[in-house]
């Protein structure tokens, strides 16, 4: 068990995760993952399906309600179509092994341009943060699922990917807890997020497969709760903005425990190395460009 008295600035830990988070996205959006899962018999038809199957596989549950609860803001239709149907055709471990085999090749090639010492240092920092997150996975179902998986031992590129997945779920589970404390439901949470990023409204709604009427009803509920003004484009009231900032701050505070072993200096170094890491993924075509290729519904 890790024991540390280190303290970190919570406002900086999200930047540390963002530096490697592209690896998580690549793991579910890379077209070869979809092809490989179809080859072993998984009934996946899109990157959205891959996301549901791969993220939930580590939880080892065939209960769609449990998966939907953990995923929180997804429309349940895709989850109900895939769970438990997927697990009648393939095993949890077969899905995760297939995904890892594809990404081992992809990351090895993509990161060949990154200085090996830098990659090793990033992997070491990521490992320390991952081990701390594992020790603090209580109340975090998606994180706990990955926590049961063995850590990659000798492959720096796979260690960073594993860390990206686990630390993302560790933060996300904490974020869901903060949303629940604030009394937000699945769609309301997305609308509140969209109020922070108006240009992302359609992407947030359509990528989670919510219909326009679901979205509008959530807007009306948030107005009644005092979160949003009556403006045509959802805009925060002063109280709504304050409450959303509390959610962000509390999410950072809950996530910070994972980064205590590396301290503020380690967090800053992780951010620095993460920029190089992200650039290597982008140059190899498995960074943000993958997001642009994903159909996001009507």
Percent helix among the residues?
55-70%
Number of helices: 15
Mean pLDDT: 94
Described by the principal axes of the CA atoms, the overall outline is globular
How many domains, in number, for the residues? 2
Based on CA atoms alone, the radius of gyration comes out at 19 Å
What is the succession of H and E elements? Answer: HHHHHHHHHHHHHHH
Biggest sheet: strands, sense, closure?
A: none
Distance between the termini: 48 Å
Low-confidence stretches: 1-6
Structural class assignment: mainly alpha
Task: Please provide the count of β strands.
Answer: 0
Strand fraction equals under 5%
Could you explain the architecture of this structure?
The protein is mainly alpha-helical and 298 residues long. The protein folds into 2 domains: 10-171 and 261-292, no CATH class; 181-246, Arc Repressor Mutant, subunit A (Orthogonal Bundle), CATH 1.10.10. Helix content is 68%, strand content 0%. It is built from 15 helices and no strands. Mean pLDDT is 94; it is low at 1-6.
Provide a short characterization of the protein structure.
By secondary structure, the protein is an all-alpha fold.
Per-chain topology:
Blueprint: H1 10-29, H2 31-39, H3 47-57, H4 64-71, H5 76-82, H6 92-110, H7 116-135, H8 141-147, H9 156-181, H10 186-196, H11 201-207, H12 212-225, H13 238-256, H14 263-283, H15 289-292
Q: Which key phrases capture this entry?
A:
about 300 residues; mainly alpha; Arc Repressor Mutant, subunit A; 15 helices; globular
């Amino acid at each position: 068990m890790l024991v540390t008295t280190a303290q970190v600035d919570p406002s900086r830990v999200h930047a540390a995760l963002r530096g490697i988070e592209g690896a998580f996205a690549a793991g579910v959006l890379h077209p070869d993952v979809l092809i490989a899962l179809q080859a072993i018999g998984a009934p996946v038809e899109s990157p959205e399906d891959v996301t549901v199957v791969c993220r939930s596989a580590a939880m080892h549950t065939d209960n769609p309600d449990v998966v939907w609860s953990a995923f929180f803001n997804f429309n349940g239709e895709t989850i109900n179509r895939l769970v438990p149907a997927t697990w009648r055709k393939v095993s949890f471990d077969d899905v995760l092994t297939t995904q890892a085999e594809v990404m081992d090749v992809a990351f090895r090639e993509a990161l060949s341009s990154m200085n090996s010492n830098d990659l090793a240092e990033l992997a070491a920092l990521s490992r320390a943060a991952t081990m701390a997150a594992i020790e603090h996975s209580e109340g975090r179902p998606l994180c706990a699922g990955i926590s049961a998986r063995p850590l990659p031992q000798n492959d720096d590129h796979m260690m960073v990917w594993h860390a990206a997945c686990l630390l993302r779920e560790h933060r996300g589970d904490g974020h869901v807890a903060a949303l629940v404390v604030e009394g937000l439901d699945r769609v309301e949470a997305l609308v509140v997020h969209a109020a922070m990023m108006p240009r992302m409204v359609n992407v947030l709604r359509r990528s989670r497969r919510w219909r326009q009427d679901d979205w509008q009803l959530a807007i009306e509920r948030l107005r009644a709760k005092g979160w949003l003004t009556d403006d045509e484009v959802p805009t925060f009231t002063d109280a709504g903005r304050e409450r959303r900032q509390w959610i962000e701050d509390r999410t950072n505070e809950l996530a910070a425990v994972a980064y205590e072993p590396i301290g503020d200096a380690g967090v800053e170094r992780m951010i620095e190395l993460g920029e190089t890491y992200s650039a290597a993924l982008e140059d190899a075509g498995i960074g943000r460009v993958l997001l642009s290729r994903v159909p996001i519904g009507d």
